[in-house]
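Hi R.,

Here's the chain you asked about this morning:
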Amino acid sequence: DSISVGKTYAFVGSALYFLGEWEESKQNFIQSEAILTRTTDTFSLARTLMSYGALEKKRGDLGSALEVLERGAQLANSLNNRRLQSNIQVNIGACHSELGQLEAAYTLYTEALQGFEAIEDKRGQGICWLNQGRIRYKQKAYQEAENKLLRASAQLLAISQKTFYTTAQTNLAYVYRETQ
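And the predicted structure, written out as tokens:
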């Protein structure tokens, strides 16, 4: 059926993304979107758009990433799916951060954090605190950066998210270097 085919294209797109085959990944996400748009599976379409937007961000096309992610956000909002909404907000926040729109990014991370807290998603919470800490570091608000990064570190270590924990610790070292 169409839903299974659309999901398969999205799965292949994600696999190709992680293999660094970005152009082929993009084509699979486009195919998935085209198929899922003609179905009633709004959730899978929103997830496809989230992954496609993350790919566009990785490729450096922030305008395209934001456009795709905003479409995904509209669908996630219509579903009232807090996890999906929050994950998309994190991705949109990352685009704004790269564009230097730090307060917009911080606001999105705060909104995503509220969603993750509502569903008790510890990983999502840790990632939001990490991203908030990184923004405050860029803004030279070192005390707030330290607080957010310490909170992120504790949370991410407690749930064995070692890669994100290491990133939080590295950013914490940057804060300490600036304040010593």
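The chain has a mean pLDDT of 97.

Let me know if you need anything else.
M.
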